[in-house]
Amino acid sequence: MARIAGVNIPTNKRVEIALTYIHGIGHTTAKEIIKKLKIKPETRVSDLTDQEILHIRETIDADHTVEGDLRREHAMNIKRLMDLACYRGLRHRKGLPVRGQRTHTNARTRKGKAKPIAGKKK
Q: Which of 11, 51, 55, 97 could lock 101 by a disulfide, CB 3.0 to 4.6 Å apart?
């Protein structure tokens, strides 16, 4: 099992698909990495040599922000907005939709399970 950027990538899948298991690498980025290293897209991870895995690991470390660093950066961006107390930061703080969606109905993913309000019956 190949371990790249702290993630065990599946051995029975194609390299192109297996790289997407790393947080921060999607289909387009995976294709670019494969093209840059001249690895055939249909190659399975189990068929890669140790040298090729090493090259993939080095390329990802050098050119891309992935896994923990990316998650930390994302969290810090949200924290910065909340500290500024700008509109988006306040929405994050309250747990409401940030990008202008309606909240009268829907928005259940962001707001959580509906809470009954006492004395609302008539």
A: 97
Q: Which residue is it, tokens 């140790």?
A: 50
Q: Which residues of 90-122 are buried (b: 16+ CB within 10 A; e: fewer)?
A: ebbeeeeebeeeeeeeeeeeeeeeeeeeeeeee
In angstroms, what CA-CA distances link 15 with 3, 11, 115?
13, 9, 46
Among candidate residues 11, 19, 23, 17, the one with its CA nearest the CA of residue 57: 19
Banded pLDDT at 23 (limits 50, 70, 90): very high
The model's pLDDT over 57-108, given as tens digits with 9 standing for 90+, comes to 999 999 999 999 999 999 999 999 999 999 999 999 999 999 999 999 899 9
